[in-house]
Design goal:
The chain is built from 11 helices and no strands. Helix 3 runs antiparallel to helix 5. The chain is mainly α and 252 residues long. The chain has a single domain, classed as Heme Oxygenase, Chain A (Up-down Bundle), CATH 1.20.910. The N and C termini lie far apart (38 Å). It holds the Pfam family TENA_THI-4. Belongs to the PqqC family.
Length: 252
């Protein structure tokens, strides 16, 4: 796997920087993870799919909070007007009519109780650490790096295009209604990633800033990869489910 540690050495043009960022996704985005490969191959058990939906809910639920932390540090009103669309997408007009609610519908469609999912209490410890690390990164790192970390959305339509048709074809208990979360996401992700990419290419105007945005995207890919690593360790063949975490055989 390519090492991106010194990818900006000597400075990059905007087009070269974009090429590197896309290379990060091509090599490190989690559509390359074995758990995803098993999902699209149809070999995950229902319990493994439930565990994925439950743990991924923790990530979905934190997105508006991380985006609010980005907004709080943005001085440009035009930037804020564009960025707040992300919060509206996930929260909806009343807090429960957006993407988070649709993800909850996905989880309940797989047989999980809504209150248990919303509480996040049975999520894996590694999931909570990964999600917390992402929230802290966006709250504490420079605005440019926080924006760059969102560029995993460049690759989101690819993984959705792999995941949705495979799940519908290979899991007879999965319906289009269950997967309604994904109906709007490719369009939203493309809109958001176009804006974020343009912002990054404009403002990453030194070698140091270019390397910082590359590192930010690598970090975000690591967060998503670590979440699937945790699922595989807990619910795959190893079966090392930590104390207090969701156990499919118990139905909770």
């Amino acid at each position: 796997m390519k090492d991106f540690h010194d990818a900006a050495k000597g400075g990059l043009s905007a087009s070269q920087l974009e090429t590197v960022l896309r290379e990060v996704g091509a090599e490190r985005y989690h559509n390359r993870h074995p758990y995803h490969h098993r999902m699209v191959a149809g070999t995950l058990s229902k319990g493994e799919l439930q565990a994925w939906a439950l743990n991924r809910y923790c990530y979905q639920a934190v997105i508006p909070r991380k985006d609010a932390s980005v907004l709080a540090r943005a001085e440009d009103p035009a930037f804020r007007a564009e960025w707040r669309k992300r919060i509206e997408d996930h929260d909806g007009e009343d807090g429960w009519s957006g993407g988070i609610a649709r993800w909850l519908k996905l989880a309940t469609g797989l047989g999980l109780p809504a209150d248990m999912v919303k509480s996040q209490r049975l999520a894996l410890p590694a999931t909570r650490f990964a999600v917390g690390a992402y929230l802290n990164f966006c709250a504490q790192r420079p605005l440019l790096e926080a924006v760059a970390s969102s560029l995993t959305e460049l690759f989101s339509p690819v993984i959705i295009g792999e995941r949705v048709p495979a799940m519908l074809a290979k899991y007879d208990y999965v319906t289009k209604e269950t997967l309604a979360y994904f109906d709007k996401r490719p369009e939203q992700a493309s809109r958001d990633s176009d804006f974020a990419l343009a912002y990054v290419l404009q403002h990453a105007d030194t070698t140091e800033r270019q390397q910082s945005v590359i590192d930010a995207l690598v970090f975000k890919c690591d967060v998503l990869w670590a979440m699937l690593d945790a699922l595989m360790h807990a619910y795959g063949e190893a079966g090392h489910i930590p104390p207090g975490a969701f156990r499919p055989e118990e139905g909770r």
